[in-house]
Amino acid sequence: MSLPPPPFSETLRLNQIGAGVTRDLEPDEAARARIARTLDLIELPMFKARLTVKPADTGWTLSGQVTAHAVQRCGLTLEPLPADIDESFAIDMVEADPRASLEVDVDPEDDGPDVVEDGMIDLGVYAVEQLALALDPFPRKPGAVFEPPKQPAEESPFAVLKKLKPSEPGKT
User: Is 40 left (phi over 0), alpha (psi -120 to 50) or beta?
Assistant: First the structure.
């Protein structure tokens, strides 16, 4: 089973980094529509990313800025809810060691470096990931309040039993 292709992809080969490289990404309308579907947005009229990859002590550092104008859906009213994103980030990266064991220990507390595989970094995937992290996971329109539906009054167990009792002829 293979994974679906990412909604936006812009790859950078490790041998292109040199002393450092900066890329400005601005997905076209079709790519923004794919990103919006992936992130469950109503629309994504503007999305830009400026990403820089530089050598670091034990690999590389990917840093950047994502800016976007997105339209989310209010979790209560389902109405459109505009969201403006302007976020900076930095991620440490190391190249995969082909001699390393295939066994991977995952520690949820360890926020170690990302592993670069096949000698390429997909800047587009990182840009979309940072956008997703910057979006409100529970968007709510100002003033929207959750009102639970009215519960019917609870009948007493004796009233329920009285309904089950067969009625006798001539009695009411």
Answer: left
CA distance 22 to 4: 27
Whether 23 and 123 have beta carbons less than 8 Å apart is answered as yes
Residues contacting residue 80 through CB under 8 Å, at least 6 positions apart: 42, 71, 72, 73, 74
Listed by start position, the domains of the chain span: 11-96+112-142
For 72, phi then psi, to 5°, come to -95, 180
pTM: 0.77
> pLDDT tens digits, the chain, 172 residues: what are they?
778 889 999 999 999 988 999 999 999 999 999 999 999 999 999 999 999 999 998 899 999 999 999 999 998 888 999 999 999 999 999 988 766 555 555 566 667 888 888 889 999 999 999 999 999 999 888 877 777 778 777 777 777 777 777 766 655 5
